[in-house]
Amino acid sequence: RLIVGSSGDIEIVDGNLKVASGHGISFAATGEPSNGASQSELLDDYEEGIFTPTIAGWTSSGTTTYNGSNGRRGHYTKVGNMVSLYIYLTWNEMTGSGVLSVQNLPYGHSTNNPSAPNGHVQSVGSCMTEYVEATNNTDGWMMPHMWSGAGANLLLYSANPGSGEPLRSVVCTTGNNDASGTNKSMYINIVYPTDG
């Protein structure tokens, strides 16, 4: 099942290549970057799976009524120390307070960068929303934000033109909490480093 060709190539005819925990595929023979220094050339992890995200308030999580059994879905892919998330949430009512946040993510954000601004490593993604209230915006785009101090959670920000603040946090407003309003939905993509 394992064939080593005359040119040195290895072919696995059937089955998988299993690598012991803590080991991986080394690319040490490749060149260094023209500016900077390599910190690792070992690909030591790959996985993909599903998770169940939650929408909540950052100050107080509260409770949320989701729309149906598929009202909160998440898929992740992890390659090395980088995690890609794809999230869909739709809800009718919530009782949280503070900044609107998405919680219960599969991996927390990396803390491994002491030179980062304010001591935090930060990542941003994209978020399309329907009927989610934000400053000067009740339907459209928001920015999911993760940083090393937030654990396995992300917070939402929106553009705030004309206020002197380019971005402003999205809070748990009456419109986002009210059960009498239209169902709220959001679609999130984000890529971030992790120490897990």
Give the structure's gist in a few sentences.
The protein has 196 residues and is mostly beta strands. It contains 1 helix and 16 strands.
Helices, by number, come to 1
Average pLDDT works out at: 80
Shape: elongated
Note poorly predicted spans.
none
Q: N-to-C SSE series? A: EEEEEEEEEEEEEEEHE
What does this protein look like?
It is a single chain. This protein has 1 helix and 16 strands. The strands form 3 sheets. Strands 5, 6, 7, 8, 9, 10, 11, 12, 13, 14, 15 and 16 form a 12-stranded antiparallel beta sheet that branches. Strands 1-2 form a two-stranded antiparallel ribbon. The protein is an all-beta fold and 196 residues long.
Features:
elongated, two-stranded antiparallel sheet, 12-stranded antiparallel sheet, 196 residues, mainly beta, 42% strand, 2% helix
SSE topology sketch:
Blueprint lengths: L1 E3 L5 E3 L12 E2 L15 E2 L2 E6 L2 E4 L6 E3 L5 E8 L2 E13 L5 E4 L18 E3 L1 E5 L9 E8 L6 E6 L7 E3 L4 H4 L6 E10 L3
Antiparallel strand pairs: 1-2, 3-4, 5-8, 6-10, 7-9, 8-9, 9-16, 10-14, 11-13, 12-13, 12-16, 13-14, 14-15
